[in-house]
């Protein structure tokens, strides 16, 4: 049975099953660096404010640094029966320093301690995720630059709709990921306030300096209210929302890649290093990575619901329910990192089968709007032009032709406004080139989108 630091008012030792149930070290152990970082700032402040002696403060800081080095090197292993990472490190410090170690927790509670640890931990994770998503956006911009002339069909209702280019399509994702980067910045800014010094919930009677610890830890300022300081987990929810959106974008993209890999589309071919085979069907090459990303999106969304449900009924201030925040947000963070890391090399090594894209684009009457627009430019009202073109499409389907191969006589039979130049107007390359409107698929317009993205990315 473990000897608890808070055992003073208890006459019995904690039951082993309860201890195992209560313990969070299995999942909060990963915050040991940040716990020590927070404790060093706290000990520095205690020394500077004369709450503990300078000598004690220095000894504690030294002791904490020693523990950090020993955990880093593997010399000191986390004890799985410890209550949590905070208790483990404090106990180890006291083991090493004796009474001096017992002074570290003066004017602090695990409630403000854990709140500061999670913020420090997630701040580092957000930076990593930011860099990864940025790398993904850069990769996509570079690919888009190669494909400003690669004709493909754009879809609505998964039916071929109007001509675009593969570059135009890729840039749509770039702008989603740019918004994600913006959201990550927003979350970082809003969460960068320091709860340390809030105590258990009601501050402290010691004359502490909260500005100093906030500054030492790189926070913008101390959190203005101690109850909010210990019980706020909004930043976990906000971050998880952002992560869910990143996953949503990856998942939509994955769904398209899954379709594009099928024989029905065959728009792309994944590199062999980024696909998998079947144990029974020798011909199979499966896009497992993208399917896993699509699957994991549900899991990250689940983490968001876990956090929201955990918080919704909690009275102020700290409640143990809040220990459940970590597994959820860590799971979301871990999985997003895994997904983006795997997605980048997969997408940058895939082969784009331009011919197949072009052929599919040629078979869906995606130039029908352009055919109608041709008549409009010759003076016909759009609704009449639309109707005539619809009739022509029906004729093509009946005769097994396309608008490109339908004889001019059939056109002229509908209206004398048609001339031989209609074939030029409905040529797919023309259709794309003429869609010069801002945000559109013409090579010119896509190059402008690329320029905007590059400016935002600073490349
Ligand atoms: N392991 C706890 C958590 O993750 C630390 C805070 C414990 N505080 C308390 N009053 N029991 O939330």
Nutshell version of this structure?
With 459 residues, the chain is mainly alpha-helical.
How would you sum up this structure, described in words?
This protein has 459 residues and is mainly alpha-helical. The protein is 62% helix and 5% strand. It has 19 helices and 6 strands. The chain has helices at residues 16-22, 25-28, 32-48, 54-73, 85-97, 110-146, 166-191, 210-216, 226-231, 234-261, 288-312, 325-349, 354-362, 368-377, 382-399, 408-414, 422-425, 428-434, 443-457, and strands at 151-156, 159-165, 193-194, 221-222, 268-269, 351-352. The strands form 3 sheets. Strands 1-2 form a two-stranded antiparallel sheet. A two-stranded parallel ribbon has the order 3-4. Strand 3 (193-194), helix 8 (210-216) and strand 4 (221-222) form a beta-alpha-beta unit. The longest helix has 37 residues, at 110-146. The two termini are 58 Å apart. Bound molecules: arginine. Arginine (ARG) binds at residues 24, 28, 84, 110-111, 114, 318, 320, 322-323.
Question: How large is the share of residues in beta strands?
Answer: under 5%
Q: Kindly state the number of beta strands.
A: 6
Strand sequence of the main sheet, in spatial order? 1-2
Q: What series of H and E elements makes up the topology?
A: HHHHHHEEHEHEHHEHHEHHHHHHH
Structural class: mainly alpha
Helix content: 55-70%
**Largest β sheet strand count, sense and barrel closure:** 2 strands, antiparallel
Cα-based radius of gyration, to the nearest Å? 31 Å
Tally of contiguous helical segments:
19
Bound molecules: arginine
User: What's the end-to-end separation, in Å?
Assistant: 58 Å
Using the alpha-carbon principal axes, give the shape.
Answer: elongated
Low-confidence stretches: none
């Amino acid at each position: 049975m473990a000897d608890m630091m808070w055992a003073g008012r208890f006459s019995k030792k904690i039951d082993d099953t309860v201890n195992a149930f209560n313990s969070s070290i299995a999942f909060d152990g990963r915050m040991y660096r940040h716990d020590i970082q927070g404790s060093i700032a706290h000990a520095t402040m205690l020394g500077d404010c004369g709450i503990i002696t300078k000598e004690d403060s220095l000894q504690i800081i030294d002791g904490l640094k020693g523990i950090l080095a020993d955990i880093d090197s593997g010399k000191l292993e986390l004890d799985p029966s410890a209550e949590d990472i905070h208790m483990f490190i404090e106990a180890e410090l006291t083991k090493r320093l004796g009474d001096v170690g017992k002074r570290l927790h003066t004017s602090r509670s695990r409630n403000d301690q854990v709140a500061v640890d999670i913020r420090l931990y997630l701040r580092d994770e957000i930076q990593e995720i930011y860099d990864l998503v940025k790398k993904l956006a850069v990769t996509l911009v570079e690919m888009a630059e190669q494909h400003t002339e690669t004709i493909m069909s754009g879809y609505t209702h998964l039916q071929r709709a109007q001509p675009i280019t593969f570059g135009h399509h890729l840039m749509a994702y770039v702008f989603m990921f740019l918004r994600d980067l913006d959201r990550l910045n927003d979350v970082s800014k809003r969460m960068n306030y320091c709860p340390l010094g809030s105590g258990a919930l009601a501050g402290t009677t010691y004359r502490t300096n909260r500005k100093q610890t906030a500054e030492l830890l790189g926070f913008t300022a101390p959190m203005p209210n101690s109850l909010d300081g210990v019980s706020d987990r909004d930043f976990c929810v906000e971050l998880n929302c952002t992560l869910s959106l990143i996953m949503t974008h990856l998942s939509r993209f994955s769904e398209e890649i899954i379709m594009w890999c099928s024989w029905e589309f065959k728009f792309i071919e994944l590199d062999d290093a980024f696909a998998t085979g079947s144990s029974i069907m020798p011909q199979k090459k499966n896009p497992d990575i993208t399917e896993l990303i699509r699957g994991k999106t549900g899991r990250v969304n689940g983490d968001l619901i876990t956090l929201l449900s955990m918080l919704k009924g909690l009275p102020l201030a700290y409640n143990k329910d809040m220990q459940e925040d970590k597994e959820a947000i860590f799971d979301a963070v871990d999985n997003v990192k895994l997904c983006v890391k795997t997605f980048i090399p997969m997408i940058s090594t895939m082969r784009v089968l331009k011919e197949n894209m072009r052929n599919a684009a040629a078979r869906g009457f995606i130039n029908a709007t352009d055919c109608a627009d041709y008549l409009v430019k010759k003076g016909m009202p759009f609704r009449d032009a639309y109707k005539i073109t619809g009739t022509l499409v029906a004729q093509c389907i009946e005769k097994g032709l396309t608008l490109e191969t339908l004889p001019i006589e059939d056109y002229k039979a509908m209206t004398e406004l048609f001339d031989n130049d209609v074939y030029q107007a409905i040529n797919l390359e023309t259709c794309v080139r003429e869609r010069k409107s801002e945000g559109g698929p013409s090579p010119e317009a896509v190059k402008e989108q690329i320029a905007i993205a590059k400016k935002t990315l600073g490349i």
